[in-house]
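Let's see one such:

===
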Amino acid sequence: MPRAGTAAAGRAPPAEPALIAQVFAALADGRFHSGESLARTLGVSRSAIWKVVAALRTLGSELHAVRNRGYRLVHGSEPLDPAKIRERLARGVRERVARIDAVWSIDSTNSALLARPNPATGDSEVLLAEYQTAGRGRRGRAWLAPPGGALCLSMSWTFREVPQDLGSLGLVIGVCALRALRAQGIEVATLKWPNDLLIAERKLGGVLIDLRAESSGPAAVVIGIGLNLALGATMLRQIAASGTAAVDLASAIGTLPARNDLAAALVSSCLEGLLAFERLGLKPFIEDWRAADALRGRSVSVTAAPGVVRGVARGIDLRGALMVETPQGIRRFISGDVTVRL
């Protein structure tokens, strides 16, 4: 699944993953906890707690350490809870979620779901992770966020048959993600073709679609959504140095929605969107996409199979292709990378 931070993961000092997860959960309230109290509660030594704190910092978490007060996460982060997510799903789609799992660490949530059998037609499986060791975005790009600093979510779905507009599914999921954010009171995000969510032209998140279709029979997809919640200043600088301008919700809006609420809103919106897409294709989503289009009217460069094409973005057509006005006329792109030309 995609990750909005693009940076190389460091190697954590030796510490048991289960203990790292326990300490992270204990610090998730954003308050100070002394090393002594953490060690006593978890039945380990103070040295073990020190190693866990070092490991969390290596993974990108921002922690304060204050003498006589202890440790605290700079950005408190509600631990992911499958039961809470399920109970907060929209009633109309809850029964379509066969399984929800949340893990501390995994290589990639998309890759893990791809390794499972396809869910039954019309059902979904959902997988979330606090941290990914090999998160990926489009075209094999790395995508990283610190533990608890992002929403790393993947869901699988099996269509009854291959939808006519399947190539536009990434646009549909982008609209669904935007609707979920707005349901949580977040109105500032826009969409960048083909799969990015932006705030003020900086990357907030992205969508990654993995298709698994056979020559005959249903088509299954794994849909990955990554949203930056609180990357921290160090991680944001690291991402900027790699050439990606990123933003997180903590710096954009201040108070963050609860992660389990946001996860439930995303799953609900995407499942409602998948049901509509299966019946009606891209049509019910076009106007929302066009209203949130961050590229329309901008001078852009599109890198695609023919090479680099420069022109003015003119929105998407009825099949989801990007239209670019060039001196030779309108060019349409069904895939490619787009950059805005200043």
About this structure: The first strand starts at residue 63 and ends at 66.
